[in-house]
Amino acid sequence: MSDSDIRTRPKVLPKTARPRLHKVIVLNDDYTPRDFVVLVLKGEFGMTETQAYRVMITAHRRGSCVVAVYTKDIAESKATRATDAGRKHGYPLLFTTEPEE
């Protein structure tokens, strides 16, 4: 093998895998006011009034609703902050995360 063979060989770059995504899910409860859930969805997830209302009413009717999909770290931090906002005001509002399939 000559020096020219080594210089013309293309570089092989490692492939980076895309990070696994996680869903943020809001769970329905019988105590947290609807308006407060909408307020949290707008504040933490940047939703419009209409989007937040639709997510809230879907969770109310079905028991839960996917709010958004993020990388694991972001999903967990948003779910924690949203849940903590409910706890701060004395509500059992709960957001969870789970891996996207």
Task: Describe the protein's architecture and organization.
With 101 residues, this protein is of the alpha+beta class. The chain has helices spanning 3-8, 34-45, 49-62, 72-88, and strands at residues 21-27, 64-71, 94-99. It has one domain (31-101): Ribosomal Protein L30, Chain: A (2-Layer Sandwich). It contains four helices and three strands. Strands 2-1-3 form a three-stranded antiparallel beta sheet. Helix 2 (34-45) packs across helix 3 and helix 2 runs antiparallel to helix 4.
Keywords:
4 helices, 101 residues, three-stranded antiparallel sheet, Ribosomal Protein L30, Chain: A, alpha+beta, 3 strands, 21% strand
Q: Using the coordinates above, name the CATH class.
A: Alpha Beta
User: What multimeric state do the chains show?
Assistant: single chain
CATH topology: Ribosomal Protein L30, Chain: A
Total of helices: 4
Number of strands: 3
Work out the count of structural domains: 1
Overall shape: elongated
Strand order in space, largest sheet: 2-1-3
**Uncertain parts:** none
Compute the gyration radius: what is it? 21 Å
Strand proportion, as a percent range, falls in 15-25%
Q: How widely separated are the two ends?
A: 48 Å
Largest sheet: 3 strands, antiparallel
Specify the CATH homologous superfamily. Ribosomal protein L7/L12, C-terminal domain/Adaptor protein ClpS
Quickly give the structural class: alpha+beta
Query: What is the share of helical residues?
Result: 40-55%
Order of helices and strands: HEHHEHE
